[in-house]
Amino acid sequence: MKRSRINDIMAAADEMIRHYGFVLPPFAYWTPDEFKAKAAQAGRIIDARMGWDITDFGAEKFDEMGLFLFTLRNGQLADLKRGGGMCYAEKLLISRQDQLSPTHTHFLKAEDIINRGGATLVIELYGSDDKGNFAPDRGGMVRCDGLDVPYTPGMKLKLAPGESVTLMPGDWHAFWGEGGDVLIGEVSTVNDDLIDNIYVQPIGRFAEIEEDVAPTHLLVSDYDSWLPR
């Protein structure tokens, strides 16, 4: 993806987020130079990979297959392993109309996916086999706003604004906006996007960046190369 396109996506996402009554934290608006100057203080932000995340899954067709994310907070795996402390994460996502986030699951993360505003969020569901692998012939069970709901393979769950679903490890899912763009909330256990996204197809989690202009703000995938530690 071109950096100029990423900058435009950031600006449009910030506008949509504000439209639905949310405001991103102050570090969202740091310039790259400001981030570098505050890197020593911002170790937790950097290590937890909090911040902007825009991906085309390496396919270079963002409008058809892509996702906007902003990680607001993220816990520590060590706390999760010992059973106490900061064991949670929170994100905002934007799924555009008919923009596919491809079928995947997580081996660690359980997540509540919430339609925070906009159009209908469609989530296509599949179950796992006994080893947790994608099983196109198996269904499962999810919880929708406190109610247990069985799903059959390939069932398309449709969430209106305010509705939510809880997905557990082994619930394979794809999603997209129907009838317009959707602002999504995600509340989950500790999030590790480097290793805890398992896709049916062999695709990349992060975009390859073409530096045609300077970045407005850094992506989480920029931290290793842009920030001194």
Structure characteristics:
alpha+beta, carbohydrate metabolism, D-lyxose_isomer, two-stranded antiparallel ribbon, 229 residues, 10-stranded antiparallel beta sheet, D-lyxose ketol-isomerase activity, manganese, globular, 37% strand
- CATH domain fold name: Jelly Rolls
H and E order: HHHEEHEEEEEEEEEEH
The total strand number stands at 12
CATH class: Mainly Beta
Shape: globular
Q: How many domains comprise the coordinates?
A: 1
- What is the CATH-assigned architecture? Sandwich
**Main pleated sheet:** 10 strands, antiparallel
Uncertain residue segments: none
Task: Describe the protein.
This protein is α+β, with helices and mostly antiparallel strands and 229 residues long. It has a single domain, classed as Sandwich (Jelly Rolls), CATH 2.60.120.10. Helix content is 17%, strand content 37%. It has helices spanning 3-19, 32-37, 43-47, 77-82, 223-226, and strands spanning 51-55, 67-74, 88-95, 101-105, 111-128, 134-135, 140-144, 147-151, 155-159, 164-167, 172-189, 198-199. The strands form two sheets. Strands 1, 2, 3, 4, 5, 6, 9, 10, 11 and 12 form a ten-stranded antiparallel sheet that branches. The longest helix is centred in the N-terminal third of the chain and has 17 residues, at 3-19. Its cofactor is Mn(2+). Belongs to the D-lyxose ketol-isomerase family. Its EC number is 5.3.1.15.
